[in-house]
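B., you asked whether I could sanity-check this one before it goes into the benchmark set. Here's the sequence:
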Amino acid sequence: MSSHSELKTSQDVHLRAKQIKSLIRSLKQKIKKIEREGEVAPANCHIIRYQVNGKGTIYWYYKLQAAESIFPMATNNEKKNQI
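And here's what the prediction gave me:
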């Protein structure tokens, strides 16, 4: 490999590292802005979109789903008392 190509590769790596640092800084700022605006779902949560066919109409629903249970399960007695 010639010294010219080694220099170019080194410059490319340096430039890419600067770009990545800049993007990380930008993402951290965006995360802080979102957190200031209100509640944020716990980690490992995502939104599920699904459709249900009604009487001649399709309804779209969005559900927040977690990888693990977040809330304790209600017992049958607790469910009956809510009615």
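One thing to flag: Strands lie at 45-53, 58-66. Otherwise nothing jumped out at me.
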